[in-house]
Amino acid sequence: ERADNYRDDGNDNFKKKRYRIAIDNYTEGITSNSPDVTLNAVLYCNRAAAQFHLGNYRSAFHDCIFARKFKPDHYKAIIRGVKCCLEMKKYDDCIKWCDAALMMEPDDKDVLDWRSKADKLQKTLEKEIRKQAAQERKEEAEEKKLIELIQSKGIKIAGLDKLRSETKLSPLILANVESHHPAGAKVKVDENNILHWPVLFFYPENSQTDFIEAFNETNTFADHIIAMFGIDSDPAAWDIDKKYKPESLEIYFENREEERLYRVDINSTLHDTMLHKT
């Protein structure tokens, strides 16, 4: 009788769209441990309905499962389970629950429509998964090819030794050949197997930067310095004293592992600098 009362209270609150209170009512009824299996199935099924209206589809589906444990042929629980699966995009499960309903009501048009919809969506989902997997394989192959090219040029990449025991490139390894600049530029290779690296120039005296998205590895630093600070270029807005001239600049690169700066010959290429023995 106690569980019956909680069910009735829950139904009353459900009709008034007070779904959270209804859930509490049904929960109290469930925890009353009634020996009536049909009543328990109804309590779980009704709580599933309230959860569904709140958008708690996973919890609602869980309650549908429990309702069927008490009464496997509880049709309302099966139908609500179907709707939950559709909302959660669990199309395989949706088809199974539709089949369970159709075993009882073979001509239920709504169920037939839901099953058809789930079947189409599942096929679309599987197609997208295959497409994504193919794209990931393609990208991984390109990344491995890029790593091999970088290695063939004598350039060392931090963390690459760990790769020898792995079948897939570590994101941490790939991060070492990518820019941390907001532009998100990455090292690229052209048709002549020339690498183009993202390079950041930092001017500590003025706390300013210049970002070169694609620095050709065969270019010298002088090429870029002259382009930025040569006589044919306007001074940077922050270079108030016009001190930044090619002949007065010194370039250093940072070895982060050693936390040390190394001076760079302005006439050296980017590739030569990357081969620097630290």
TrEMBL record:
Superkingdom field: Eukaryota
Keywords assigned: Coiled coil, Repeat, TPR repeat
InterPro entries for this protein: Csn1/TTC4_wheel, TPR-like_helical_dom_sf, TPR_rpt
SUPFAM superfamilies tied to this protein: TPR-like (SSF48452)
Limits of the Cns1/TTC4 wheel domain: 190-274
Coiled-coil regions listed in the entry: 118-151
Molecular function per GO: Hsp70 protein binding; Hsp90 protein binding
Keyword Transmembrane attributed: no
Any one of the GO BP annotations: protein folding
GO cellular component, one term: nucleus
Assigned protein family: Belongs to the TTC4 family.
PANTHER family registered for this protein in UniProt: TETRATRICOPEPTIDE REPEAT PROTEIN 4 (PTHR46035)
Protein name: Cns1/TTC4 wheel domain-containing protein
Species of origin: Lottia gigantea (Giant owl limpet)
